[in-house]
Structure formats: C-alpha cells, structure tokens
Amino acid sequence: MTDLTPITALGGTAPRVLGAARLTLSERPELALASLALGRGAEPPAPEGLALPGPGGLSVQGALAAFWTGPDQWMVEGADLAETDFAARLQQAAPGAAVTEQTDGWACFEIAGEAAQIEALAERLVNLPRDAYAPGRASRTALHHMGVFLLRRSPDRLAVWGMRSAAGSLWHALSDTMARMEALHDS
Amino acid sequence: MTRIDGGLTDRGTTLGFRFNGRAYAGHPGDTLASALLANGVQLMGRGFKYHRPRGAISAGSEEPNALVTLRSGARAEPNTRATVAELFDGLEARSQNHAGPLERDLLAVNDLLSPFFAAGFYYKTFMWPKAFWEKLYEPAIRKAAGLGALSGLPDPDAYDRGYRHCDLLVIGGGAAGLAAALAAGRAGAEVILADEDFRLGGRLLAEGGRIGGRPAADWAAEAAAELAAMPNVRLMTRTTVFGAYDHGIFGAVERVADHLAAPGGKVRQTLWRITAKRSILAAGATERHIPFRDNDRPGIMLSGAIRAYLNRWGVTGQRQAADPVAIFANGDDGHRTAAQLAARGVPVLGVIDPRADAPNLGGYETFAGAMVTGTKGRLGLTAIEVMRNGRAEWLSCGLLGVSGGWNPNVHLASHHRGRPVWDEDHLAFLPGEGGPAGLIPAGAAAGQGGTAEALADGLRAAGQALGDLGIAPAPVELPAAEAEPARQEAFWHVPGKGRAWVDFQNDVTVKDIALAHRENMRPVEHLKRWTTLGMATDQGKTANVTALAVMAELTGKAIPETGTTIFRPPYTGVSLSVLGGGDTGKAFRPTRLTPTHAWAEAQGAAFVEVGPWMRAQYFPRPGETHWRESVDREAQAVRAAVGLCDVTTLGKIDVQGADAGEFLNRVYANMMGTLPVGKVRYGLMLREDGHAYDDGTCARLGEAHYVVTTTTANAGTVFRNMEFARQCLWPELDVQLISTTDAWAQIAVAGPKSRELLSRIADGFDLSNEAFPFMACAALTVCGGLRARLFRISFSGELAYEIAVPARYGQALMERLMALGADLGATPYGTEALGVLRIEKGHAAGAELNGQTTAAMLGLGRMVSQKKDAIGAVMSRREGVAQDTRRLVGLAPADPARKVVPGSHLFAPGAPEDTAHDQGWITSACFSPHAGHMIGLGFLENGASRLGETVIAANPLEGERVELRVVSAHFVDPEGGRLRD
User: Fold this and answer.
1) Distance between CA atoms of residues B221 and B204, nearest Å
2) Residue A3, domain member (yes or no)
3) Chain A residues close to B738, C-beta within 8 Å
4) % of chain B at pLDDT higher than 90
5) Sign of the four-CA dihedral B366, B367, B370, B374
6) Looking at the partner chain, which of B265, B583, B658 has a beta carbon nearest the beta carbon of A186?
C-alpha cells in the first residue's frame, strides 16, 4: 500500500456531506468506475455476472453496477473499490473488451431523500422527462453546462457523476439548487 | 374611496402600501392598480413624449400606461405594470417619467410643444450637426422621453431555472384553459396549466357571470381545486408563458417571490423551459379602445377593465363614488358593463354607442348613434363631449369605459411566423396556419370569447390534443353558462380635430398615422418604425390592430390588405436576471481545478484562467515584488535543478482496439502505427484544410493501447474530432476511445536533477538512460505501490519526465516530490515559466498553432508523411498553402535592452511598414533568463534561410519599431543533447 494520502474530488480527506431538512447531498469517493467498450462485432460480456443494460438502463450485480453510455459502451461501478485497481479487475472479468480506468475521471455525488423531493430537485437541474430519472434508470445529460450521468438507484437515491476537475462547480450547482428548494418550503 | 361590496379580495385583512410616498391601504388579492383606484387614485403616471397625465386603462398585462417603479434601492424595478403588481404589505411604488411631482410634471411643457414632436420628428430634426446626436440630442431625448430608470446597483436577488416536460401545456387558466385542463387531466394526461395571474379563472373572475347556476368565479375555484388534487396535473400560477420555440419548447417565467416584500431565501423568479407534446393556447383576448380626441386622460379605461375592477376587486374606478360613469362602445359588450354598474348602484351616465340600433340592457340611458368627441379634466376625467345628431354636449363624467371589440391574444400562435387571419365576423385577427406545431388555439384566443363558447372550445381543443396523443378521453360534462350579448359593428376611431391616441405607451395618435401615410410609410413594418407604434413594454397589445384599421381607412384598403401584425417573443417583458438562469459571478460557468489546486493555493500561487481551467501561473516567494522575478527564478530552477508543474490539463485520450494504430495513422499527419510499445512519439494533427491544429505526444502502452495527449485548449475538440472520425469516417476500424484527462494527475518533473528526484519515489524501476531513454514510457508503481505511468518527454529542452497517478493522489505526490526534492532544489513552476521554457526551446504552442499556420511554417513539414494519407495531408500540399515560405524563427533584439512585443509585424530594414511589405509577425515573446534579454518566436518569409539577418519589428499602433536579429528558434541546447542525457 502506498503511504500517500488521497484527497476527494472536493479536496478533503473525508467525503463532504451536506444535510438539509429534506435532502442530503454527499460525496462518494469510495465508488470505483471503469469504462467498458466492445471491440467491433464482439458480443457483450457479463463481467462477474453483471448484465450490461441497454440505453437508459442501470443494472446491479453484487458489488458491480453498470449503465449504458453509448453504442457498445458502458460505465461499470464498483462499490467500495476505488482504492483498488478496479479497471484491472474488470478487464479480467471481460477479456477482449476495452476497459479504461475512470475512477478519478469522475466524481460521484449522491442525493438522498423523499422521491418527490429528489424529483423536484432534478427538474431544476436537468432538462429530462421524469421517466429518464425514474428509479432504476440511468441517463447522460448536461447539468449547468457540465456533462453528467444521473443514476436513480432507488426512489430515495439519485447519484450524479460529473467530471472530477469540475467537482466544485457541480457541488455548487447541486447544493445551491437544494438550498433554494429548501427556501421554497420555508414560506 | 370607490370600494363597494363583493369581489375576490380578503377584506378582513388590510395591507399598507405607499405610492409616491403617500400611505394607502388595500387587501390581499388586490393589484396595485385596484388598490389605488379603490383609494380614488386615477393618476398613475405620465405619457412617454408629451408627459400628459395617465392612469390605468386595463386590468391586466396589456397595460400601456400605469407603469411604475416598484420597491427601492437595489430592488427598484422600473416599468412594472400596476395592473398586475400583486399588492403586499409594505409595497412601495413610484410613478415614472416626470420632473417634479407627478401632479405637476415640469416636462409637461412638451405637451404644449406637441406640434414639434409628431412622428418622424427626431429623424428630421436632429440631423445636424451630426456630432451632436450622440453627446447631446440622444441623451437629452432619452432623459425627457422615456420609461423608468434602472437603479444601477447589482440585483441582490437569486434566480433559477428548471425544466418541465408534459403531454399537454395549457397556456391560460380562464374558461377555455380550465375546461381543457380538466378534460385532459381526467383523461390521465400529464398536464401543465400555466397562467400569468396569481389566481386561476381569467375573465371568469372579472365578468361576474354564472356557470352551472353559481358564480363563475366559484366554478373556477372548484375547477382549480380539482386540478390541484390530480397528481398528473401541475398548476403554475404567476407564470407567464412568454415564447413558443422549436419542437414544442416553451419559455416561461414563474414569479416566485415578486409578490413578497423581500424574497427571503427564495428565488425571485424561475425560468422554466417546458417541453410539451401538445399545447393549447387559451390566452384570452385583449379589449380594444376607440381613439377619440383627448382619449388619454386618467379615468378613461377599457370597458372590460371596469367590469374586472367591479367584479373581481369590488372597485368602481371613479375618484369619488358619486362621479357618474359613462361607456363608449361599438358593441353590446360595453352595455354589459353599464348594466352591471347600474345594478350595483353606481351612477351611470349612459352608453354612447355609434350604432343607430344600440340596445339597452337596463338601468342606464343609451345614446344611440352617438360618439364621444372630447374630454376635459387636467389630472383626471371630469367631463366628456357627446356628439349626437350633429349636436355636441358636454356632460359631467368621472369615469369613461371604452369598448371597441376584442383582439384574440394570438401572440404565441404567431411566434413561428404563423400569420393571423382577419375574420370579418369577429372583426379580429384569429390564429392562422403555420404557427408552432402542436399548438391548438382555444377560447377567446381563437375568437370563442363568450363564456359558454370558451368552455366548449376548451373541451374541443383538449379532445383534439388527447386524440393526437393517443389518450382516451374521459367524460367531462360541460357546465351551462349564460350567453352574453356580443353584437358589434366596425367602428375604429372618431374622426375630427385634436389628438386621438392609438398607442398610449408610445404617444402615437391618429394624426401620426395620417402623417406616416402622407410620408408613404404605409406598410405596417414602416408604420411601426416611423411612429414607434407597438414598441416598448406593452408591444402594442392595445394599439396594433386599431392602428392597422386607421391605416386601412386612410389607404382605402381592407384591413387584411393593409397588413398583419405578428409577434415575437417575449409575450410580456422578461427580466435579464431570470434569463440568465441564476448563475452569476464565479458560478457563471463551471470551473475546472487541477488535482494540486489546493496545494498551489497554499503555496500562494497566482492563478490564470485557461479555458475553464484554473492553472497556477507562478509561485511568488517572499521578497519577490514583480511576477517576473518569480518566473525567472522558476525557469532557472528547471534549467539548473528540477522543477515541478501540474500538467493535468493537457488532454488525454485512451485509444484501444485492434485498429488503433491504423486509426492514429489517419488522424496524425505523421506515422504513429509504427511506434513501438513502451515509446512515445510527438505527433501533429492537421485540420481538413491542411493547416496544423493540434500537437502533442502519443504513447503506446500496449499492443492495442495508446494514450494521445492534446493541448489544454484543444482537448475537447480533438476528442470530438476523433470520435467523429471513429463513428462516421471509418466505422469499419476496430477502435475505442475515451477521455481520461481528469482520471490521472500528471506532473512534469523537469530539469537535470529530475532523474535523481524520480528515483526517490519509483518502486524498483530502472530510470537509467539505457533502460528508460528519451521518449520512453512505462507503467510502474511509486511511493510504495501506487500505480503510475511515466513518460520521458520534455517541453523545456531539459532532461524531463511526466508522471501520472490516479488524480486523488496528485496532490500527495506533488507534496512528496517537493519534500524529497528539497535538497535537489525542487521548485514548483507555473504556466508563465512553462511558456518561457518552451519559447527558449522553440516549441510551438497556441500562439504558433493559431489556425493559419502549416506544418511547413512550423518547421515540421517533413512530419506530414508522404507514405500514407491522413486528415489534412492532401490539402496541406495544395497550391497557395504549400508555397508559403514563412518559417518559424527565433528573434533577438539587436540592442538587448529593447523589448520584443508579440503581435508586432516584421519588415525588411528600410522597407515601408505597410501590408504590402509585411514579412511576418511575432507570435510569442518573453524575457529569457537563459539569454539575459527578451527573445521571441515568429513567422518570417523565407525565415529558414535568413538566420543572421536583421529585420524590423514594427508596432504601428504604438509607433514602436525594434531591430531584431533572426536566429535559430532553439535558444537553448539546439542539438538537443540535454533531453537525451
């Protein structure tokens, strides 16, 4: 193990958490991420039993989860695997596919709270119909001019993956919108 | 006080407010206009040009006159319509456009000078002397004639934006809109019902009619309650749908906190982008007035507005309750107002109706075959002149309602250049073909303005929308509504002497239109620009059609032959703050930070914006008083010891696949497929037109695995172009691409002691020149097992490496390198020193790759391989490009004390310094601590064969000229021995 100390995308040594009355926003640096792309004409693999979903889909199998990012392309998440060589593990599970380490290419923020609150927040952030962020759905879209992936893991959880270098701007957009929404309820 | 019983305000609660400093009281549910009228205040502002006293003529968003400034200080908001400003406790409003008190406006002198202010006056008068326009005439005119003034202070409030999607957007919550929303909501469609008002019901709240045997306002409230309870229906009140855009997209502004004294933590307004599969335009109609002499006094109002004040707000509108009210109407609609007023015990003088067979609905006198031909009253109406059977008679009158028919609010239907169509039966323009796809006009907006008609038309429109959407309709019972008398006759203006206003907001009179006609400004487009009719905040809602009719009369043509008014967004004014969407200042756009940003901040670095990135520019040390001291020190540290620079911002593209080498051969001008595994090669990319557009290195990590690096500026462009090539140009190639720019923190370790420093962190990795020579790359581990990538590449010309680790470890690695390199003189350097080092080495960067330069000009002509094709290769050989003789050279001042200024143009000594003799230009320059003077890079005609010559660098803008020597672009180590050692 290296003796270097990692920092989160927001620059802390511990994940940042922002709890408000109705929603909680938290940084999720423990999630590993790797891209998986098929070679031309190859059949989709099922790494560690994980079914690679179609457009808009989000599938989960054990510690892995996958969402579609383009024709023959997926992102695969690894729960609590960020400190491992996750890309190598995925490559082993999907020989022949092009696997690229993406863990620190992106930063994941998760919003937890009542479904209605999450949806009210989402409609102020992304120009998507509600179906696109219904529970079990994943989508790729723009949020405040930043490219993001939205994963609705469950009715009460929405994950937003954005580019790591812009994590501060993404956090600002999410937390600011959350604060404005809270204020609407305080009338 | 003219408040009577009834209405929809909460009389149990009193709200205090101030107008022009004076305290008044109103009730929740009031607008500023209704509350002022209830207090007997008719005078609310001054006219645009002539500064004549003006009051509210409407009860809605079409208001041209009653423009006020709400609030004060930074929250002061000019040009707010008193007729839609929702009253709140503590509201402060001021009238606009007057010098001195509203009642005694000194600029009213303009009214006496009115003959000089006719349409076209400015164009003809302020022509000479020309120079006076900008400095004298225009400021003076703007000061005298105008609307409210901005505070000039930053907006203290927050705004935001949002996106909503639905099956059906219903625009307008009156009879038609409510009926349509009920039908679609009950059928299960996802419905948004938006209305600009704070209460749903539209004219149902104003007309005092009955639906299903009970007051129409009650029916509206019940309908709204039913809709509010439906999970598939979203009600958006205080929301103006201001524009229809492509693909069923509508812009809407929700006034979230405009009705509050201060927003608290709330946003002031929200900009909504609504995407709707179908939409119903149920925006209602706007009543027309009839121009007659002096028709602009406070106390002269639209007849329908009087009904609205009466029924919705319980206000009769005179200054004193005993003042008689008269109506001037060309149709039955005006008679309804008179009958309702009479029934409520308001003194009604009568209805003046030009029709010989004018009806009488009871409780008032009908002046059939009569017209209003004049008015009196300095600050408010006191008398009207009625002409009947050729006899004029002055009658005392405190409020005059005018009714000239209704114009359907076709605005949104014409936003895609849908042209409204004149309908002679309705005497109005109705929505025509060619408007926004999927938009269905209904109710008064479609000419179906009677309550029963509007309800039925709303159901019809909903049925049509549901049919299009494939949603089965649910049964909706149409409630019974009384039929209103609605007969009317065309009557557009009262002929005669004096001024009769057509457009109140722009002070355009019938005479002005006649003048435009005489000046041949007859097409409506010319009429508008010549007279300013239809401009400014109300966009002629109460004026356009009447003006067309007057022009038609003057030209002897029919109205549709004269022209058509169409509309652009926005329907009503939209604040720039809300259009901005809420993000200002630092949040205006996303910022990208490098992995070592916090560390650099802690070192006191100065930062520079590089696209969205913030990069450390230089790291000042105590005692350094000028940035150049820091930069010189940093550059020298790299040449003498070892420097560290975060270069994460350079784009990194992971390229994999069996055909990756072939793919790269096609995107790079030079050969890349032959690169051995474990090696790096410099690569140049050309645009399709043959000019150079990006350079960088390409590393081959494995048999079918490459990493392409790009410049910081072009990271996105190169990735996009490669993705385009992969998907569209050569889909047959087996290649996979993905950006990994952010994934890896990359640190340049440059200088003669870089190998020594890296050997202190590399885990058992042989860094010797033999094992890891110049342009080698490898995966390794550092600092006890951290996976890393090492590239032996150099931008500075020194022995140098770039080391990449997962981004989260970038900062720790930088700190470790600084700590372990302390004894070696490890020095952080920023983009300024980076620039100095590369200029000294003669490396091209953005200033050289400016889109106009070729590989040959950069001295890289041989990199464009002849053995293969690549993007831009053929075009780079075309005539006119291939013959360009300008070459990148180094430039040093003949007198070392002189400056080398980038952007200067190069001339042969003695040649005229003009375009014809231009021989090139200086692209980059810096002070070189290595050379001890300023140096530059530039493109010079036949530069390659002119080493040693003298050229003149001229900067004619500043009158500067400097003698320069043409030298090699490589000021440092031209043989390249250092980077290979």
Assistant:
1) 10
2) no
3) 35, 37, 73, 100, 102
4) 87
5) negative
6) B265
* Residues of the domain holding A96: 17-186
Q: Quick check: B657 contacting A, CB < 8 Å?
A: yes
Judge if the upstream peptide bond of residue B893 is cis by omega within 30 degrees of 0: no
User: Is residue A123 assigned to a domain?
Assistant: yes
Question: pLDDT, tens digit, for every residue of A40-55?
Answer: 999 999 999 999 999 9
Put simply, whether B715 touches A (Cβ < 8 Å) is no
Provide long-range contacts, Cβ within 8 A and 24+ apart, for B858-866. Answer: B858/B684, B858/B692, B858/B888, B859/B887, B859/B888, B859/B944, B859/B969, B860/B684, B860/B692, B863/B669, B863/B670, B863/B684, B864/B669, B864/B670, B864/B684, B864/B686, B865/B669, B865/B670, B865/B671
- Given a contact cutoff of 8 angstroms between Cβ atoms, the answer to whether B533 and B503 are in contact is yes
A140: domain CATH number is 3.30.1360.120
Residues 6 or more apart whose Cβ sits within 8 Å of residue B728: none
In a domain, A166, yes or no: yes
Q: How many domains does chain A have?
A: 1
Contact state of A37 with B784 under an 8 Å Cβ cutoff: no
Q: Where are the alpha helices (DSSP H) in B470-501?
A: none
Closest CA–CA distance from residue B283 to any residue of chain A (Å): 25
Which ipTM score applies to this complex? Answer: 0.98
- Mutate which of B167, B258, B593 to test chain A, going by most A C-beta atoms within 10 A? B593
In a domain, A22, yes or no: yes
Q: Is A183 an interface residue toward B (CB < 8 Å)?
A: yes
* CA B106, chain centre distance (Å): 38
A4 neighbourhood in chain B, CB within 8 Å: 783-784, 786, 805, 809, 812-813, 816
Q: Which of residues 118-177 of B touch A (CB under 8 A)?
A: 158, 160-165
d(C-alpha B374, C-alpha B204), whole Å: 33
Window 613-642 of B, Cβ < 8 Å to A: 613
pLDDT tens digits, residue range B596-634? 999 999 999 999 999 999 999 999 999 999 999 999 999
The mean pLDDT value for B317-328 works out to 96
